[in-house]
From TrEMBL:
InterPro entries: NAD(P)-bd_dom_sf (IPR036291), SDR_fam (IPR002347). It comes from the Eukaryota. The chain crosses the membrane at residues 15-37. PANTHER family: RETINOL DEHYDROGENASE 7 (PTHR43313:SF47), SHORT-CHAIN DEHYDROGENASE/REDUCTASE FAMILY 9C (PTHR43313). The keyword Transmembrane applies. GO terms for biological process: steroid metabolic process. GO terms for molecular function: oxidoreductase activity. Coiled coil: none annotated. This is Retinol dehydrogenase 1. Belongs to the short-chain dehydrogenases/reductases (SDR) family. The keyword Transcription does not apply. Keywords: Membrane, Oxidoreductase, Transmembrane, Transmembrane helix. Pfam families: adh_short.
């Protein structure tokens, strides 16, 4: 009789534990399906919505401008060069308009705001995409001078802030969207120079902007791309600038790194970039488009499989883990101190 009772109670325990597990799994599945359905809802009236994009000469901005134009949005594309503007205009419908924009020049930004104001009228600006950016100078911190940091910060951070502040009145009219392009390097500082600093700044600025502007119906999203093949990640551009930085170093600093360090750095960085950089930049522009068209845009978008499954998870691990990854990807100086 005792054995029967024990067997019966054991069966009940197994049944209950399995029931709890089943309920948890069903709730998780329900939550995932509900999130997916909500995430798929889109706004309408694209033809009545104006979007302004910076950095449209090439890369993410160029592709996004063409994507949105094909969907009927009224796109104004800011380009740094006349050639970039002309090439984009030739590849799109007459509905898309281009203008020259230097995000480091407040007067240039004001001119762009006035142009867009005339276009949008009382409807206001639906979307602002801060995409313009630069990477170089980038490399070991000791190789930098102050102006090397400011060259990048002026474009990637101060430019984003200036453009956003000047366009905010038009965005408030439309209760629109701000989409800021950061990077996984805004979570992990993998190299020296202004690039990582600027992207950490974009993350912080976007968070404070989102909290402040949610009261006015403005939604702010951050795009965090992994490594993609664009002008920003051009190995030739980065290597040429590394050689410039190396050439101006004092001899004692060069000696501390070793005669072969520059070549080793360029070789290992080139090898890493060729492996990591994805040619399909539509993975990034899909995120940008979703942020502009979803009824409930996400706060952050990890763009690319490397961002989702490697870099972003890595950013949550202890620092010694990310330090190890960087040490694997880049060479060590000759005069490296023993630990």
């Amino acid at each position: 009789m005792v054995h029967v009772d024990e067997a019966g109670s054991g069966f009940v325990e197994v049944l209950l534990s399995n029931l709890v597990l089943t309920c948890v799994l069903l709730l998780a599945c329900y939550a995932a399906v509900r999130w997916y359905v909500r995430d798929s809802y889109r706004i309408g009236g694209f033809s009545q919505k104006h979007v302004f994009i910076t950095g449209c000469d090439s890369g993410f901005g160029n592709l996004l401008a063409r994507q949105l134009d094909q969907k009927g949005f009224r796109v104004t594309a800011g380009c740094l060069t006349e050639k970039g503007a002309a090439d984009l205009a030739a590849a799109t419908s007459p509905r898309l308009q281009t203008l020259l924009l230097n995000v480091t020049d407040s007067a240039s930004i004001r001119s762009a705001v006035e142009f867009v104001r005339r276009e949008v009228g009382e409807r206001g600006l639906w979307g602002l995409v801060n995409n313009a950016g630069r990477s170089v100078p980038i490399g070991p911190t000791e190789w930098m001078q102050l102006e090397d940091f400011t060259k990048v910060l002026d474009v990637n951070l101060i430019g984003v802030i200036d453009v956003t502040l000047q366009f905010l009145p038009l965005l408030k009219k439309a209760k629109g969207r701000v989409v800021n392009v950061a990077s996984i390097l805004g979570r992990l500082s993998l190299t020296g120079g202004g690039y990582c600093l600027s992207k950490w700044g974009v993350e912080a600025f976007s968070d404070s902007l989102r909290r402040d502007m949610q009261h006015f119906g403005i939604k702010v999203s951050i795009i965090e791309p992994g490594f993609f093949k664009t002008g920003v990640t051009s190995v030739d551009l980065i290597n040429a600038d590394l050689k410039r930085l190396w050439a101006r170093l004092p001899q004692d600093v060069k000696d501390s790194y070793g005669a072969t360090y520059l070549d080793d750095y360029i070789k290992m960085q080139g090898f890493s970039m060729n492996i990591l950089c994805c040619p399909d930049i539509s993975k990034v522009t899909w995120c940008m488009e979703h942020a502009l068209t979803a009824q409930r845009p996400r706060t952050r978008y990890g763009a690319g499989w490397d961002a989702k499954f490697f870099w972003i998870p890595l950013s949550y691990l202890p620092s010694f883990v990310s330090d190890f990854v960087v040490n694997v990807l880049l060479p060590s100086p000759k005069d490296k101190a023993s630990s």
